[in-house]
Amino acid sequence: MAQLTESVVRLIDQLSKLPGIGRKSAERVAYHLLRVPTDEAMGLSDAIRDVKQNVRYCSQCFNLSEGDMCTICSDPQRDPALLCVVEQPRDLIALEQSGVFPGLYHVLLGRIAPLEGVGPDQLTIDALITRVAKGTIREVIMATNPTTEGDGTALHISSLLADYPVKLTRLARGVTAGSVLEFANKEVLADALTGRQSL
């Protein structure tokens, strides 16, 4: 039986460490990289190197940035009095794609998850409190994920901000427009009922 070379085995091992990539997928990617032209494969390695060398966290909001401040924080058109708190940079990107939020963001770089050993001190909560304490923010929108950990994180932050003169809000949840009630799951319906709004 033919053996894989040491370099191929090492590549497969590294690829299989990526999230969502199992051993078989790692093998497929490795064989794909062996088939493509050298400059295409090296383009991937150059992109990885560039990301590791050039991308850092924004000094204000902790979004991904190639400079001291990200493009959102340095945009004079954004409303600095509106602050949306998210768990990860990918959550910020999802909200930005909606195209309706005019304010700034604060990325926590995670959520409080005691079972995983993640406490408040491992997040950017202190930096968030410092931003709010400056007094220029009028509303903080908690946009953590609707999970037990996300809700717990939002509750913890809300309690820390309770003494500041800011409006604290949470993203709405529930039945989406165009859906049919009989097909909605019970958690969605429960969120819709508890978060109901006046007409």
What would your notes on this structure say?
This protein is of the alpha/beta class and 199 residues long. 41% of the residues lie in helices and 13% in strands. The chain has 7 helices and 6 strands. Strands 4-3-5-6 form a 4-stranded parallel beta sheet. The protein has a two-stranded antiparallel sheet with strand order 1-2. It is globular and about 65 Å long. The mean pLDDT is 91.
In short:
The chain has 199 residues and is of the alpha/beta class. It has helices at residues 6-15, 23-35, 38-54, 89-98, 125-133, 148-161, 186-194; strands spanning 56-57, 64-65, 79-86, 103-107, 139-142, 167-170.
Structure keywords:
globular; 199 residues; four-stranded parallel beta sheet; two-stranded antiparallel sheet; alpha/beta
Low-confidence stretches: none
Q: Can you tell me the overall shape? A: globular
Q: Figure out the total of helices.
A: 7
Q: Tell me how many strands there are.
A: 6
Share of residues in strands? 5-15%
Distance between the termini: 72 Å
Structural class: alpha/beta
Strand order of the largest sheet: 4-3-5-6
Mean pLDDT: 91
State the helicity in percent bands: 40-55%
Q: Roughly how many Å is the radius of gyration?
A: 22 Å
What does the main sheet amount to? Answer: 4 strands, parallel
H-E string: HHHEEEHEHEHEH
